[in-house]
Amino acid sequence: MIDPFTQLAILILRFATWAIPGLIPFVIQAVETHS
């Protein structure tokens, strides 16, 4: 059985790999507007 901390880490990694590509355009836009 996988311990809860490992399971949580896997969930966070899965969410990060799914969310980061969607967030990149917002990050680029924010950097461009602040520079």
From TrEMBL:
Keywords: Membrane, Transmembrane, Transmembrane helix. The chain crosses the membrane at residues 12-31. This is Uncharacterized protein. It comes from Nocardia puris.
